[in-house]
TrEMBL record:
SUPFAM superfamilies, per database record: ClpP/crotonase
Annotated Pfam families: MdcE
Protein's name in the database: Malonate decarboxylase gamma subunit
Amino acid sequence: MNWHTLASQLFPGGHDIVEQDNFLSGTGTVDGRPVAVIGTTDHTPIGIEIALAQARAVLQTVRAFPRRPILILVDTQGQRLRHRDEMLGINSYMAHLGKCIDLARREGHAVIGLVYDQALSGGFITSGLIADACYALPDATIRVMGLPAMARITKVPEATLVELAKSNPVFAPGPVNYWRMGGIQEIWKDELAQALSAALANVDASDRRRELGLARGGRKFAQPVAEAVRRQHAGPA
């Protein structure tokens, strides 16, 4: 789905979202309230320019519109892999974006992520995954690392990873697998305006991804291990 169609379905009451060099920004209306919108389109990689543009938009919202909800529209092939960006410290720019989104959350802004097309690696981690809750459309493509690349890095045969992906969502791409792991709150299949309204009305700032992953059978050990560590540090009652 292209961003024009998406915006029309999310904001039937109107919006002023514009695109400049694959960066989306503007405002939409949900239940009579304005919602700040930032994001990317056309599978654009996140380089220093877009990372700064998104961070600037978040900070402007925090300064000018206290507690206004923020919707992050995600469509990216991940971090831009260029020598220039690496030499300029792209990791620091992306960390800055993540910190700005965290600041917005701490200042009382509900932050919702929506993967409407493609979400890969660091471009997804510092946007949709750092929101209060992240949602996805059914046809979205989500993965942190492709299986061929994972095979090269881990030295595990790709055929083995393909077989593991059939039963283990940690190895498998796609919104359903990320839903099973708790990374995706819900998959929006229709009535996008109603889904967004409900998401904004039920924002929970606490991180429940481990809990959801355990309940959905996608991450069986993250929550028990975290609880064991917590008890260990708490000491005897």
